[in-house]
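pasting for ref. prot 1 ->
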Amino acid sequence: MVFTDAQIGQWLASFLWPLFRIASFFMVIPIIGTQLVPVRVRAGLAMLVTLSVAPLLGPMPEVEAISLTAAIITLQQILIGTLLGFMFVMLMQVFVVAGQMIAMQMGLGFASMVDPANGVSVAVLSQIFLIAVTLMFLAMNGHLVMIEVVVESFRAWPVSSAILGPGSIGYAQVWEMLMRVNWLFASALLLALPAITSVLIVNLSFGIMTRAAPQMNVFSLGFPIGMLFGLFIVWVSTTGLLPQFQKLVEETFIFLRAIQGA
């Protein structure tokens, strides 16, 4: 059997270009793309998914391996995978931002701990929210849905040499994904608004008490009482965490479906 250079290049392209998209997706997404999972495990998982998906994809564009067109296609696959993963990162960060807002209002902003997943210091309340939503996301088989999203993206944006065309991600789609940051802060504010409002009412009450009795030391009384009341409000609001998380997950998936034209 004799194989030409074009055939070998086509076989490699049918595996490498999907691998670039899937690997960049796995390097960004929450849970799998965190520092808790070694890079070798992520790369191995990306290769396994690519081996399962590659036979189902259509023919790849026939271009030379070392050319400007091949480099553009590679960058395009990395961009698509990174943007899709970034959507799920923002879904998880909604609760981190909401926890930061609540903690700053109730006086727990100084109580921070290192997030082992991201390697940064976050408020303890944000870490509690992040652990809770991560467990709920896994219980809802969200990790399987994430893989399904990146696989379905090959139908919406197949590997193509066209920079702006039917087989490529457009400027408007990229811009909508980047502007998703507005949704992150708006959703975080809606989640934190009940607790922030309750703590604000407590602070206003202590302000009125201070005006009525100036000899009262508001710092020695208001700070611990405000913190305890804030913790009580957070405890009460945890009962609605699952419906809120489910709503945000549905909004994220509907947005991704709309972006992909499904």
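and prot 2 ->
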Amino acid sequence: MARANYADILDLFCWGMDKLSRPTFCNLVAGYEEYAHRRQSTQVLLHLEQAALINRSGKKSATTFCITAKGWERAQVCNPERNWNHSWDGAWRVVVFDVPEARSKERKLLWRALRSRNLGLLQRSVWIWPHDLTQILREIIQVKGLPENFCGFTAPELFLCTHAEVVATAWNWEEITRRHRTYLTHLTANRAALQKAATLAALAGVARLERQAFAFAFSLDPLLPRTLLPDGYLGCETWERHAQFRDLLHTQLDQLAPS
């Protein structure tokens, strides 16, 4: 039986259930040959706790373990519904800057910082976002070498264009759609592999692949409020199918590591 690393176990912990009792957790790690003994199970717990990926409450047989915010972040768990359901006040936040060609390094740093947060590029050096940008800009201005000629403001009203046209222009929906469609296309194979998984190590491998595919599907998605989502948007279907996969994972995990 293949040895599972701590990341594999964290994946099952995150994607299989939100809380584990001590017996259930021990059953989980005991599914790997290398972790079959209580001492190794304790080492796994200590490692995950020391890394602040899980925390414990209760004592002895009543002990339970919960995933921490850092653990969820480590597992790249994404809940797009929180963003889709975020109310919108109808105003766009706009960031503009003008960096000369001679300072291309600084311009690239700024572009990468804005792009990594999935802000929309309306046109050259004009970026937009539907929500408050204060915290994001505070993080970005810490970047070394950030140009001084950089500002942000709120645009409460549009003219000569619609919100739908702004959304269509500012994000690469062709690529976003391709990534969602890739996930949906390969999900059938992942579900088949999940149902065939006969060991926890195999189950962890399938869960890890699913997590990576799910994260990739939303990696460029700005997760706009529902009122701004474009026609033909596949993110909602991706989220629904992913939820179905998690239900199957729960079922399979209960069979392989019963409480």
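The chain has three domains: 6-74, 91-155, 172-256.
The chain has a mean pLDDT of 79.
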